[in-house]
């Protein structure tokens, strides 16, 4: 049961949450990724910068003195001072870690190659720690990795206190104060035991003899975000951290804390930059390092404005957070976040499907019974009623739909992920060979998860956030009515006639499909349906806005349909805006008037506005300006369409400072293909020139949706998939097996299935959000969020110059020969 006296009180939470009003209805549950900065912090930083003049500390003594004062304040925050620890400012935790290994003296005597120390790291460490092994190898250190359970067992084995070795090497062990994967807190009271050699027996399995002094590198980045690191109680030799994890601001600034008695072992730093030497000859190999220890390591000019902001960071934190536990704000944060995570754990622990199956698979190393062993983090995966896993990408899309920010994947903790998901090294390599990459959206391979879902709490979170999150899970994944899982089979693979023939689909004659067998004889297969026609053509002139539906025919251009996704709306930071951020975009409905040569924009309650389809060079120079933005990692050259339409769009979407950008005619963005394939030019569409939707498949899907709150008719549901080519046929799902398509006189190549996100859960008429149809798509296709097929244009069948594609044209399809049994 949550102890309410040990968390932040409601009145105090009102004051705190007012600092984060910018969140609106967003529920932010990724504190382990980055703490949010409070509004008053930015205000106080701006005020300080506006009323003071801060110069380069290499120039200005006052600025340098101020930085030294802040250095002391940060040490005080960790309950220590400059007499015990030195603070070196870095660009973040990763640089702090790297600085240690680059400077660490594994051999006490450079000529004694036989007595080099070891670098030992926990397999569950963050990638930034594991990567240190490459530098340790270069320094001839023995590299040893230790498993989670082995580490916990070894550090609990009391070591005999030893004196420092006069000979031999120095060994360094690196481990996290708190797991970045699941919030487990590793023991800190074992540091002295490690330094006394408790790891020696374990290392004898790898080395013949242990004869070295031990030093401890503590990765405290995740721990110090919500916990008190008291350096009077525990004293690691080196501590790495990032300030944005604690305060939310500034990014790009961290620190390495070095115990004074361990400074001498960081003697092998090679590079020196500005401000780190007392003397230097550029024409002779001669330089003298700074006497002051931290000055030897802070190469070049410090990020002095960011460092100065730390004073406001500390002041703001101490001002807005009450000191409930032990009169300490970090203890208060620790208890507050712990009990929020424990409350979530208890709610999810009891969550079951209607058949009694547990809905959650936890990845824990503690049971939330002891705050000294667990932070405010919970990591898990969701399981369906039939026991299959729900992919974290599917979950991420649903969370985004409900404005809930979470982290999914492995969180740069490959070792922890591998251990909790019970994957062997071979499994990990097989996943890579199957196409999975760190940070991608491949969430399931052969039904097995490649990552997990992580929820982490900050001091600004409340029990309402917990409830909102649990309600989202119940609505989307647990309380849905049971529906029978159906295996999607290839109708043609199951046809006996086809099973016995080898070869490729290579001809269509009179709407009949033919295959070549081993004797090069054409084998006739009955038609897939009596008729397939192109029912509707849609273009989306402005990316992520409403459709313009074509009644008769439309011209095919070099990048797709003419005027399809030729414009986009960008925010004041130049980033493209989509319906994921603003659902009102679907209610901006463009019309293309070819006679008047204008695009007319319509929005409910607003007077329409028009912009010309053709601009002369003089008009562009007068009214527009060249600009750059990005679409799906591609840099786009565009032309700003001017202030009038920008103001109109900003008012319609209720977002200030939006701009309408048109793709430049000389922008050569292209479809990513293999080197030996012809590249197709792309407009501002995500991945392909055209998207085809089979209305029979939409009808099939609608019949699978059992949510009584979902009331879309067939046409409205079809609109959600935002296809360019809407076809009608009798059979569903067959388009997934097509290799190419001929529509009228025009041939298209299938480029694959269309991956889906939460945008299909936006009603394209009203902008309202729903859980369906994404939930049912995931269930019916085993977690694979695919619907519709991508096409690229090949050319006309009869090599004519006709570039018009007409509605109600007949369609002929060629099957994907890879699916024919051989």
Automatic annotation (TrEMBL):
Q: Which residues are the active-site ones?
A: 412
Q: Which cofactor does it need?
A: pyridoxal 5'-phosphate
- UniProt cross-references to PROSITE patterns, sorted A to Z: MOSC
Picking any one GO molecular function of the record gives: molybdenum ion binding
Q: Which GO terms describe its biological process?
A: Mo-molybdopterin cofactor biosynthetic process
Family, as annotated: Belongs to the class-V pyridoxal-phosphate-dependent aminotransferase family. MOCOS subfamily.
Which HAMAP family does its entry note?
Answer: MOCOS
Q: What is this protein called?
A: Molybdenum cofactor sulfurase
